[in-house]
Design goal:
The chain has one domain. 64% of the residues lie in helices and 0% in strands. The two termini are 20 Å apart. The model has no long low-confidence stretch (mean pLDDT 82).
Amino acid sequence: MNRREVLKGFGTIALFASFPAVLSEFSVAIEAAEKLKPQFFSSDEFALLEDVVDIILPNTKTPGGKATQVPAFIDLVVKDCLGKEDQERIRKGLNDLGDSFLKLGQEAKLEKIKTIDEKAFKDDAESVWLRIIKKLALIGYFTSQEGMTKALNYVKVPGNYEACIPYKKGDKAMAIIFLMYW
């Protein structure tokens, strides 16, 4: 085992240590209700969040972010794990989209989010909220049952350690490998 593998392992442990209460609360809440009610965001903000997540993770041959309750996960993480500054940054970003965003067609919504995304990754202070939402959306999706089992190649009980696993073009990423990089 080399230093890089140890650091990756510690990173994985830190990720799961950061969100255990949120993940357990989220999984219990999913069982209790088909459609979760927002706890941090207002219903209007949550509707905007659902549309943004639907653009980030659309339905394809696997269920998308909205179908896997990712907005509810983001709501819980924002409420329980983020500081006031980030909470307000996200809330302001969603409110800046406004109700008019909900009325746009899918292509216009996609273009608007692409524009904000480009600004966010150029460290535009007004757009950084989308970067946070994207990270949380990916974590929420790939730690959901659907994300793990349908979008990734999930092995419930992995076998022996294999240093080099053959990869064929088009194969799904291994779920265990994906989480090591978070």
